[in-house]
Amino acid sequence: MMEDITQHRFTNGKLNLRRFHQAKWDEPVIFEMSEPGQRGILVPEVEDGITDAVGDPLSNLPEKMRREESPKLPELSQPQVLRHYVRLS
Amino acid sequence: MTDESPTVYPYIPNSVPAVKRQMLDAVGAQDANEFYADVPENLRFKGLMNLPKPLLSEYELKRHVEGLLRRNEYAGEYLNFLGAGCYQHHVPAVCDEVNRRGEFLTAYAGEPYDDHGRFHALFEYTSMMGELLNIDVVNVPTYDGYQAAATAIRMAARITGRSHALLAQTIDPDKLSKIRDYCKPDIEIGLLPYDRDTGQMDLDALHEVMSSKTAAVYFDNPSYLGFIEVDGDEISKIAHEHGAVSVVGVDPISMGVLTPPVGYGADIVCGDIQPLGMHMQFGGGQAGFIASRDEEKYVMEYPSRLFGIAPTIMPGEYGFGDVAYERTSFAIREEGKEWVGTAAALWGITAGVYLSLMGPQGMVEIGAGIMARSQYAMLELDSISGVKAPVFQSPHFKEFVVNFDDTGKSVAETNKALLGEGIFGGLDLSARFPELGQSALYCVTEVHTQADIDTLAKALQEVVES
Fold first, then answer.
1. Could you tell me the residue ranges of all domains in chain A?
2. What is the ipTM of this complex?
3. pTM attached to this predicted model
């Protein structure tokens, strides 16, 4: 007959096992992982037919309405972004 | 309340009759109804609710719901040119992957010590939004962009101690309706007329109506009608000359190419983050943001949660938590500046994922690409006899007004015909902005190819010629 191993879980009514073990990372802030030039996703290119018809799409914006410097967002590859957020979750 | 049926419900633990009986015996109750003894008899529901027969198995339920969904005509199947506040942009797969993580999906009311990852992710979201908007302080999401606008105006009223707000008349009528709801009964809303040729706010009229009672001047940029308000600096200047706050609503996906509102004097910036990685979900994918300078008189008037970073006792470790929590209705229920909710925090995390995937280059490219496509669409539609696009002679971002007056056809007629061709035409503005005649608000984004736009133009040409 097979031994009933469930009896070994407790000593004097107290559980012998660890009850729960949460995964834990010392995860940096996303800006710290940034490397200039990395891309997390590419956006669809504008077709030549559209560019030929409209030229520079920003040309009719008054200078004061054109953003001068790109936003200082982090630059990461897609797996880095996914891994970072899965760890945070 | 008592259920004697032998059904064992998979979603309800302990619904096996014997287990239920054991539990009742343990507390000495005959039946579960005894737990409701404190509820007076006349307040208790009697009989059975008028509900259809339950679909007990997951399969039956799935099949039923899929049957309902199949009746939808949706943007995944149709060529869609509707926008007006809820937009079809590409949602990166990683956005869905992250926000479907059960740990984020169900994280509702955790605290910094037990929900570290969510605080970390939302701190990063607010930081990235700060970079995108070029501003210091960004809140954890509000319900939606409408609420963000209304609350921004209420904040301006508290900051100035005044009770009038002036709004561009080109505002989304639905947004205006929510602003009126939130501003009742103590803040008066006035509308500023616009130039019929350009759509731009009438600055002379603004000069005239500004007074020592004006708390805020509010406009959207890009406007609801798609054009870009180019004199934001003038509008803010006039507001400031009268001691009022300049509040600007902005589409965050335009921020790679358009000057952020602080660049033209805005004191409070607000909007909706739905374009940043949220699907169109019948309103469920919306979430609002409010942003300002890091100035105490502004910061202390946010009703929303603000997250910050701090060192812990462990060298090199970060902690995240609420900033100036005592402002909020969570801290002082009866004295909170405004009631706030937590419904949209998941979308803050998702927008953070979106911005970290896109990076600076992605945001620049998507903004320029959207503008190129929408300009191409305007050219194509304008070349159709009797169709005018755009109605307003101003630069546009992704939306623009198309007028059909000279075609002799109503927007309702053209949209019905387009629907037959598998196309969702632009939003009918004829009831919302009667002064624009038979006009529709069309939206073009990065999801539209040249062929898509050509398909629309060809179909519209056939409609107006028929």
1. 23-42+72-89
2. 0.91
3. 0.92
